[in-house]
Amino acid sequence: MNRLADPAATPAASLSGRAWVGEAPLFAPVDLVLERGRWTCLLGPSGVGKSTILRLIAGLDTGVRFDGKVHRDQPVALMAQDPGLIPWLDVTGNVTLGARLRGTLPISFMAKYPGGRPSGPGKGTDGRGAAPPADSAARADALIRAVGLSDRADHRPDRLSGGQRQRVALARTLFEDRPLVLLDEPFSALDARTRAQMQELSAGLLAGRSVLLVTHDPAEAARLGDRILLLREQGLSECPAPPPRRQGHARPYDALEVLAMQADLMRRMMA
Ligand SMILES: Nc1ncnc2c1ncn2[C@@H]1O[C@H](COP(=O)(O)OP(=O)(O)OP(=O)(O)O)[C@@H](O)[C@H]1O
């Protein structure tokens, strides 16, 4: 097959270049290519520039000086480290925030349905005579259930724990339903059990998407990465290819080959 004609062969996004904070180099020249439809994990120590790379790919302001090129031709969803929840919106309002800002959900959706759940398809109005889109409401409901927060759908962020807030941010990112998804330490505030569940959930819901996952955690990279990259001050290096992963699933956390990969990644991070 002609690779140029095959959309799967073209990268989902790429970044090449280097960055400085003031006069101090942040990262040495890197050449990062995100393969379409796969999970790329970016591991690395704190402060080496991983979040900055994510923000550059997302096209957001970083405050650093970047000399290089970013290519991206797909709509992107970014889950930043800080959940960035809106304090006066409840869980459903936060999950559906993007749609409400884009005007694809009525702005009064939350005021009318504080729990985010219209009483049935086509019922109710948004105050302007339009029916609220029940499919969006149902999708938001399903995601909130999937992240284990159904019983808190009408809670505001100040009534949630750090891990619960992070799960709201995850549901909001998944609700965006974008082909390219950038995740910055998305599970870092979760207990080990919930973390494993959310890894599996994300692997399922983001199957076929192009994902860049920034993580400090070699165990996470070993479960989720189709490719694993290590960013250090000296630059970016590629770790040995992980074993194939069942489409739509994280690798089992207790499989010997996953534990061995975790140990190998840890050794590389310590080197
Ligand atoms: N706008 C900015 N102004 C000043 N310093 C910045 C700015 N943005 C990033 N930095 C610095 O650049 C470095 C890299 O930040 P970045 O958040 O990208 O690292 P990281 O690898 O994601 O770290 P962590 O794993 O701790 O989140 C940090 O030392 C940070 O203080």
UniProtKB/TrEMBL annotation:
One example GO MF annotation: ATP binding
InterPro entries referenced in this protein's UniProt entry, alphabetically: AAA+_ATPase, ABC_transporter-like_ATP-bd, ABC_transporter-like_CS, ABC_transporter_ATP-bind, P-loop_NTPase
Pfam families: ABC_tran
Region (Disordered): 112-135
Keyword terms, alphabetized: ATP-binding, Nucleotide-binding, Transport
Domain ABC transporter positions: 2-258
Family: Belongs to the ABC transporter superfamily.
Protein name: ABC transporter ATPase
Source organism of this protein record: Paracoccus halophilus
